[in-house]
What we know:
38% helix; ATP-grasp (chains A, B); D-amino Acid Aminotransferase, Chain A, domain 1; 30 strands; Dna Ligase, domain 1; six-stranded antiparallel beta sheet
Amino acid sequence: MANFQGDKQKVRAILDAVKKEGRDSLTAPEGKLVCDAYGINVPKEGVVSSAKEAGTLAGSMGFPVVMKIVSPDILHKTEAGGVIVGVKNADEAVTAYEQIIANAKKYKADARIVGVQVQQMIKGGTEVIVGAMTDDSFGKLVAFGMGGVLVEVLKDVTFRLAPATREDAASMLDGIQAAEMLKGVRGGKPVSREALQDVIVRVSQLVSDFPEISELDLNPIFASENGAIAADVRIVVNFDQKPARFRPDEKAVVTSMKRIMQPKAVAVVGASNEAGKIGNSVMKNLINGGYKGKIYPINPKDPEVMGLKAYKSVKDVPDEIDTAVFAVPAKFVASALKECGEKKIAGAILIPSGFGETGNIEGQEELQRIGREYNIRLMGPNIYGFYYTPSNLCATFCTAYDVKGSTALSSQSGGIGMAIIGFSRSAKMGVSAIVGLGNKSDIDEDDLLLFFEQDDNTKVIAQHCEDLKDGRAFAEVAKRVSKKKPVIVLKAGRTAMGAAAASHTGAVAGTDKIYDDVLRQSGVIRANSLRQMLELSRGVPILPTPKGENVVIITGAGGSGVLLSDACVDNGLKLFKPMPDDLDAAFRKFIPPFGAAGNPVDITGGEPPITYVNTVRLGLEDDRIHALILGYWHTIVTPPMVFARNMVEIVNEMKAKGKTKPVVASLAGDVEVEEAAQYLYENGIPAYAYSTELPVEVLGAKFKWARSAGLLK
Amino acid sequence: MANFQGDKQKVRAILDAVKKEGRDSLTAPEGKLVCDAYGINVPKEGVVSSAKEAGTLAGSMGFPVVMKIVSPDILHKTEAGGVIVGVKNADEAVTAYEQIIANAKKYKADARIVGVQVQQMIKGGTEVIVGAMTDDSFGKLVAFGMGGVLVEVLKDVTFRLAPATREDAASMLDGIQAAEMLKGVRGGKPVSREALQDVIVRVSQLVSDFPEISELDLNPIFASENGAIAADVRIVVNFDQKPARFRPDEKAVVTSMKRIMQPKAVAVVGASNEAGKIGNSVMKNLINGGYKGKIYPINPKDPEVMGLKAYKSVKDVPDEIDTAVFAVPAKFVASALKECGEKKIAGAILIPSGFGETGNIEGQEELQRIGREYNIRLMGPNIYGFYYTPSNLCATFCTAYDVKGSTALSSQSGGIGMAIIGFSRSAKMGVSAIVGLGNKSDIDEDDLLLFFEQDDNTKVIAQHCEDLKDGRAFAEVAKRVSKKKPVIVLKAGRTAMGAAAASHTGAVAGTDKIYDDVLRQSGVIRANSLRQMLELSRGVPILPTPKGENVVIITGAGGSGVLLSDACVDNGLKLFKPMPDDLDAAFRKFIPPFGAAGNPVDITGGEPPITYVNTVRLGLEDDRIHALILGYWHTIVTPPMVFARNMVEIVNEMKAKGKTKPVVASLAGDVEVEEAAQYLYENGIPAYAYSTELPVEVLGAKFKWARSAGLLK
């Protein structure tokens, strides 16, 4: 649905003319007409073809005016000496006309000169820029920034998918570093937010309505308290449109993904009795993992694999098969895949490498063609396979994994997949799924999102990716899914060096700022590092959703309180401050006179367990407090496990009374605090030894999600 | 030594006059004279006292001019309507004069009006700001930033201690976000770096020469390719100088600190036989920790404590005592401290709380007076004590600690101290010392720096602090020490919320940006979080110092390569790129054809140990490579411990051949990688499981140090 209805006929006519003339950009007057058609304010102007005319027209507009060459062959007008600003009277206009024509001829002798544009000069106001561009992965994007050096030097610009809503536009105005400038600085008046939102919405709708507009720049726009006028319009067109990427409809995706992830029968193409072979490992994992469906080994020679009857081809299997796991060399994949297609198998798990990642693009394209032809979805190639614990399904050559939980993870790279498995096992993090996506010839992050969206076994989705083949599709799905379940993304290749390295999976990463803005727009929580993705995957699902923004720190160590406060700011958490008098007094009742209420509530170091219990109970009881961060200090009076057990008890006691709030803990002490942290974590309180930042990062992520899903007051 | 010699007499005369008149700021003409005396360029100007005179003087300078009210009673001239810019001719100058006088009288009827300043108007150029200020902890600071919104909205400003050297000044020009603007944008010419360095050096010298100048602002300065002219000068003075903080000379500090940290005899004031008492824990730790010097329990009642003869007072002990550890309630501390003073004990370790942190400021000041009177240094109060492992000395009530190593850690807070102990023990991080500083009534971070500087047992110094009582002293010492040994600082209270929380030790944190800039200027590596301080403390000392900037990633997992590349950028490391052809070819010889040389060197996943060994050997052998980052991918072909042993072997083999380079590793795999990481770490290769960022942070810190210590080419 369009956010704004422009005059499409008018724009269509202009673009048709440009196309007919074989041009790839619009002249300034054409640009103005396009803006007019979409209600984007531009200065009064007209084109003249004589010096005298210039004087007359300028006079009718009011001075000063700016005069610019109009030529389809001169795109960089300033460079060509084709722009004269501050023309103050009719005489100057005449001279300026002659000068501009002379400069243009000198710059490019054969340039076709339409005339000279005379334009009302906009004075005052704050310079901003609104633009639009076309990204390979995300398609049409709209950009906003402050004019001049702030964009050029500080790259202070923000992007959203086009078309953008008014809310998107508002978030752009607030989303630049220099946002404060829009509120008026040095005694200036604030600019009209409405007017700027208007421009953003209209520009974004324009490029969405006309995909052939590949670039658009309104630079500068003069914004004031009364409105916004674009002083210069640049529009570049590209009539060679890339064909849209094929996407099955969402219902079809879910139907296929359900068969793949929750199959009644799995075939292993290349199943083997020989230890060390991938086809052997996959068989072992399926069997030892406890998968209860049927397993059909496919092997051209052996009549039996690991005690199960083997078949020469999937086509020989009498029953229906949902998922086929491939463990054959690359050269055998295509023909076996065709057979899977004929067998109406829903998905092929393509473990084999030797495709896109080794330069075998054709081989991979062949698989894609077969997949499309037979409507069989492809996972990979070049992957470790996948785990789906609710089905006890380990369709992988890695070791079996059985700690069930509610986080679904995926990785583009096998190495990162192994790190996910290792961390999960080590931290006893329950997972619902771990999926390898590899070369992403077909199934990608948004297919997984669609499946996990409707999967009741999954509460949090965490994805490592190096690129998004179809960023727009991902963003659209993620925006919906993230309202229901936290979506955490580790986008590798953030930096130019990283992006260059990402070529190992053929990934081509765009500007990271675009990823950053669009992921945020989609409600995605972006992880900064591998370990952070893992820690958030572990912690976010076990925390209850907060009901409001008021965070209170209760700490035995004042020093932890300081670092926890810093971490709150770093992670966008709001300390409940000032604490209401009655609450402050209530906390004070429990702590020594030299302790500090306020926030952090500093109960001081030498206190017995009851002081922690009393203050935490109060924090959980009082409805004005929405989350607690605990800072524990190891002492003889309150040993680590005593603290941990007391905290779990009081949190459970209050939960039974309907007081459910997120609680995290930072433990400072000798090595015994590690056991206490593990105990706390396993009982619903994400807790870390020797770290004041990790527990707050986890809590911050939960808040970020709750906020973007609209669950916080 | 002064970086610039100004005309001090001239400035002295002006300031004397200001002082005599009881003013707290200089008039514009006075400001100009001060600038003249220090060779800071200001526009031509003069003060007139009639409208006619204004026209004549302005004409002699050349138009346009700017005219400003001169009145000791009007500081905010613009607000008072006392500034008119762009005066274009003599007539306008006459009118402007009258207007300004009228406005000034309206603004403040009784304002003393000296006249109107007529000033040459500086056109064009880039607007910058140079200023100076006085900070409670750091003293005189010089500031630099771009003019206008960049400073006002984006707070893009950088600070250095005054006086600043030309090198400091250069680092300031490069140290702002908008540094590129100085190089010329939009086709503009670069500004003269020399001229700006000049202004910074001169301003910083001026405020250092005249401490009574509390604030100085040159705003704006118009910088061009030819020079820099300050268009406006504002100077605020404060003749009430705070007395300088007492500091014993460095030799005396070291003498005392050596006696304290390496004592021949230790007294425990309040030693006790009663388990659970602090005086009992301290005794146990001294004895069980293996301290070989003499231990004198001080106890008014018991004749023996833990089998050692006890004394009623330190004065009763027949021998010399170096260190006295206090384990008595606050109210008994002062009298016992006096006795320690009379006994000529070098230092008192004041474990007791109940002083500054509970509001008992007087009690703490009394201790400080006694300390100064008797020349006894005070550690604390309100601390856990300290460990110095080379002396097997555990002068603390916490558990004994005995893993010897070369990192000396300290913390302002007890909780953080406990986290240091726990982490150290858990990670088997060897330490030379762990010191609690608490309320820092006397001994502080720079005293520790001075001791550890000359302590051969210490290679790296890591300090947690919430404030620096004397930031300038710290910065000066750190600048020297950090050239020899890495100094890592975790400054808590970075944020406003954190700073507010820091009041628990009476800490008053200043602007974090000042800390950040000054710590960097001093060569300090700033840790972002508690865990990072601990990880850097563990990793930095075991890494050899790199000889150059060329970092190479060798990875089995392409996905790790991408994340490791991102981490390199995040941590200021330079990937050796493009790899020279011969080196690239040499790497290629060892890896499969579908692997990637370049950088990361992607050896691909399924390779045997020899591929890791061959590529790492090449990386260590070739002198063009200065550091290696390894990305390991867990496979059956190269299990984790096989990888780890092979890596340690090849690194040691090459070390024996004189090829010593820093190597770090990221391990992706199942839980067995944890054992491998520990093995690697213990053998000189900082390695982390499930993390691509931590090993690179450690390597980045080593490089940062080597760079600032001038050890890198």
